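RESIDUES AND SHAPES:
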Amino acid sequence: MSMPTLPGELSLTGYYGLKRQDLGIPSERSREGVTDSDMRKSHGRAKRILIFRPDNIGDVILFSGAFPLIRKRYPEAGITVAVKPHIMNLLELSPDIDGLIPSTRLLFWKRHEKSALLRFKLPRRICKNLERISNRLNPAYDALIFPLVSPSTEQLEVIHYLGIRNIAGIAGSGVNEPPEGYPAHLAPERLFSEYLDISRADPWRHEFLATADFLEHLGCNISDISDMKPRIFVSEDDEVFAAAAVPSSEKPVIGISPGASNRIRSWAPENYRIMAEKIGESANFLIFGGAEEIDLADETAATIQKSSANNHVCLNLAGKTTLRQLYCCISRCDLLIGMESAPLHMGIAAGIPTIGIAGGGHHGRFVPWGDESMNIVMTNFMECFHCNWKCKYESPRCIESIDPGKVAEAARRLLGKRKEAKSSGSRRIR
């Protein structure tokens, strides 16, 4: 599937032919008579920059190609990245950042909000305001880069209490804005000292395109979407782990990633059994996932094992790897089949064939990307697409209706091409 071309768009090569639309962002803002150029200069003088990325693993993977561009833009600055604690392993070896911090530890009151005293409203409010005053008087960072397209109120609240004066962000999406709107002091247009206004853009526009516009707004130089290709750095120990966990085999090695950030976005485990039977050849299946997905992974592995006619071998690695080890294991697969989640993005970044099973909650925003000859996304279009996973049905029909037979057909095709590529000594599928 290709992304549609819109009038006035600039075509860029690669990644499913993604297009970049000129949003016509004005060069000046009326707020306090400050121009975007002036604010970019103030960011350029910053010596301590915090990149705040408090969302999920897949979001951080898609953004990882931005780090070298930001480093090139601010070569003299110390760049610290704040992510969720369980994501830190993914970025620890990145050469383009100087420090990592758990996003949960940026603020004192966030670290201690479950303490007995801070459970009460008045002490919590006093603590928050005192911390903001302290941060304004003695800031830990000169500038904050907040590249989220659709932030939550809680994420914006953290930025408010960090007290950093120089904040670059994105405003105008509205996708995760509460029905009553953000609180006035947390409205991005008021909270950020500098922002890219995307209110005139399609709210479901691909994440790569929105990020590219934001990076150019900061002054980064991007000639092509492929300049933002996700980058995951691993250690020799990570690769040794993967080599032991996923040994070479004459059988095709098929990775399965059944989990997603929300269980309703997952394909039924029984579908994997039907798919495995219809693939029509014996294979080694590896089940991937996080610790919170072990039960789903166990169920999926058990259903695939029922497909005994093809003598499949099934190994469950869910909860047994770090993120970097997971990436190395996935990179050793001949094919990855999974939901629209972090392992799928890892597979595409690793350059292996993938089949993504995607619903319509935020269709087109995070997938497709990659090489359309080897990175396939399967979905069933419905009139209720772009519901932001607020499904009007008891369960998401857009995912339930994806035919495991069609997934197996696509898998056979990709495995055949993969086999040809291997025999010719090439990793790429043509």
Remarks:
- Residues 1-14, 20-35 have pLDDT under 50 and may be disordered.
- Residues 287 and 316 are 5 Å apart (CA to CA).
